[in-house]
Amino acid sequence: MSRQLVSAGLVCDYCGGPITVPTIYRRGGRRTYYLCCEACMRKLKKKLSRSNKNKAGAP
C-alpha cells in the first residue's frame, strides 16, 4: 500500500468548473453551494427562484 496525497479539488455547483477561490452561497440554513465566480452565483439564484415559483404553483 502506498501513501499518496490526493487533491480533493472543489467543483462549482452550477457549472462544474474547478474552484480556486470559492464563492459560498448559503440558502435557508440547510444548503450550502460552492461556486467558482459571482456570475455562477447570480445564475444559480435565478435558477433556484424559478424552481421555487414552479413548486408554489403545483397542486
Describe the structure.
The chain has 59 residues and is of the alpha+beta class. The protein has one domain: Ribosomal Protein L24e, Chain: T (Roll), CATH 2.30.170. The chain is built from one helix and two strands; from the N terminus they run ββα. It has one helix at 38-57, and strands at residues 23-27, 31-35. Strands 1-2 form a two-stranded antiparallel ribbon. The protein is elongated, with a radius of gyration of 16 Å. The N and C termini lie far apart (56 Å). The mean pLDDT is 84.
Strand order of the largest sheet: 1-2
Largest sheet: 2 strands, antiparallel
Beta-strand proportion: 15-25%
Helix content: 25-40%
Query: Could you give the order of the helices and strands?
Result: EEH
Number of domains: 1
Rg (C-alpha, Å) = 16 Å
Mean pLDDT: 84
Q: So how many helices?
A: 1
| CATH-scheme architecture | Roll
Question: Would you state the CATH class?
Answer: Mainly Beta
Total E-strand runs: 2
- Cα end-to-end separation: 56 Å
- Which structural class best describes the helix and strand composition? alpha+beta
Anisotropy-based shape: elongated
Low-confidence stretches: none
CATH topology: Ribosomal Protein L24e, Chain: T
